[in-house]
Design brief:
The chain is built from 6 helices and 5 strands, in the order βαβααβαβαβα. By secondary structure, it is an alpha/beta fold. It has one domain: Rossmann fold (3-Layer(aba) Sandwich). A 5-stranded parallel beta sheet has the order 2-1-3-4-5, sandwiched between helices. α5 links the parallel β4 and β5. The protein starts with 5 loop residues before the first strand and ends in a 5-residue tail after the last helix.
Length: 139
Amino acid sequence: MPSRKIKVYLAGQANEYENNWKEKFKKIEEFDFHDWEFDSDQTSPDTYFPDDLNGIDKAEFMVANPGLAPSEGTWIEIGYFYGQHVKQPGDFCKNLIIIWKENRNPKWSIDFVNKTGFVVKTVDEAIVKLKGISNCKMK
């Protein structure tokens, strides 16, 4: 009997702006990735907003890459996921990984972001972290 794939939502910058960052994840066979660029109807906010949130609803893990540009949509997705995966506000979310590049600004906000979930600096670090924190859920 094949094992169930773990659902992961890939939030953040589009591939074209971040060196195809999501493609490295999609090569990992143990996971079923929801990529908003392809799995949500991007016609308009009336279609992609609910499609994205439905993808988040089904995800057990989230990897978010806000990149360096303003990423309002990414932070909405992170907040929605966070709210569904903690018992109380202020809890650390063990199912959330945020890629925070060293040259991302503003610098003061990293202290806040560190309280929400795992923060890593690169896509490769995020892959290692995802594999590590999901092992207990793989059957």
